[in-house]
Amino acid sequence: MEDNSSEPASKFSFGGWLLGGMVAYGMFGQLAAVLASAGLGVSSRLVTVPSRALLLGMALASLIVLLFRPGRAVLSSALIAYGLFWLAFGSRILMEAATRVDVVVETGRFTLQFIVTMTLGGVLIPSLAVILNGCWEKHRFIRNTSFFLALGSGITTVIFYGNRFTNFENRMSAGDTEGGVQTINSIPIGYLGASLVIFAAYYVVCLRQRGFWRWIPTIVAGGLGLFLLVGSASRGPILGAAVTLLFFFAAQARRLDFRGVSFLLVGGIVGVTGLVMLAQFTGSAVINRIMGIGYAVATNSEGAARVNLYEMAAEEIAASPIVGSSLTLRADDGTDMYPHNLFIESMLATGLAGTIPLTYVLFYAFKCAWTILLNRAELGWVSLLFMLYFMYQMVGGAIYSSGQFWIGTATVISCGTWIRRNNYELPD
Predict the structure, then answer these.
(1) Hey, which of 114, 318, 331, 427 has its CA 20 to 30 A from 311?
(2) What angle do CA 26, 29, 32 make, to 5 degrees?
(3) What terms describe the molecular function in GO for this protein (predicted)?
């Protein structure tokens, strides 16, 4: 399928530009800024604070524009559930504000101030602006901006940290001791690589670009994505990419797109082979870490900390299953942690009062993701990125700081609702 979809000239193009900016910058732009600041030895706060302010500014501008043009907003039942979840989460923040004392401040990531600012400026308001914005006539601009920001982030990573990608123990340790940044977390770099692999698969299967010059960015994205996956030496991004591509494969099979199915099968074989060979060439331990998952769990030699977090969370959830008990888990020494699982963290913070509407939001999002892949394959990148960062949230991210997950979820709901409003029926 070629990307011949109509994109009519719209008098309301400003809403489309804002939507594109929020989606692209929220998903990949902030990461590129942080990577560049660390590589240049600049204090991360000099970049992250203005970066969040820029995203928040675009979100507020979008909400103001929609206030004057309400016909361009897309409304759905998921919006109500979304509001109920954040009402429950916000109530938990207010309850803890009266009693919480931060005992151990670990790089400021778990202080109440950080949680509040990230929730409002990095997650809640931007994702609300995206979920309401129905200006998808500019979908090619939104897609291309997102893709090239992701590609730029990957290139930035290689420029500043490429020489460290062979310095492995269990996973990559990158970054400088200058500028208040000691390390660049390998996990976001891994998911950036997974995003590039997903984009490459999407371009090949859904758009089937013609011409040598159109293939160059796709090939670069796929190769760079594999390199970052190997370089991060993290299992989560590889698992997320695998599940996302299986979801993509199922949709193409449902559409009876045998050419797309063939591309994914051949590409999967080539990708896995390239991943293994690249890991062996660079000395990455990622393959050993994947193959050793069963042994590590059985012997409790690795992953015990994660299991302990689940057990701690289960005890607190059992004590207050309706409204939750706390935003974070606190160890005996006062160190705060989060459970590394979306539903466990939701139950911990909001109980059933927040987790039930959250479940509905995700059900609606998955329904939209499937609809988009079946009916508007040229918009399939929206579904695939949502699936990838949902997997991230199931094994790693925190509710209050996972902007990519929330913006990805809002994007797929907004796009799916827009498609349905334009007479594309939801599948049974």
Answers:
(1) 114
(2) 140
(3) ligase activity
Report the number of distinct structural domains present in the chain: 1
151 located within any domain: no
- pLDDT at position 180 is 34
Any domain includes 405 = yes
Q: Which domain holds residue 400?
A: 65-138+185-321+328-421
Q: Contact at 8 Å (CB) between 224 and 154?
A: yes
* Range of weakest confidence among 171-175, 333-337, 338-342: 171-175
- Quote the DSSP letter at residue 399: T
405-408 contacts at long range (C-beta below 8 A, 24 or more positions apart): 405/342, 406/123, 406/124, 406/126, 406/127, 407/22, 407/23, 407/26, 407/27, 407/126, 407/127, 407/130, 408/27
* Residue 10, pLDDT score: 45
Mean pLDDT of all residues in 210-228: 83
Q: Which of 201, 209, 307 is nearest to 261 (CA)?
A: 201
Q: Whose CA is closest to 370, among 390, 391, 346, 386?
A: 386
Note whether 188 and 405 are within 8 A (CB): no
Token pair of 93 as six digits? 């923040």
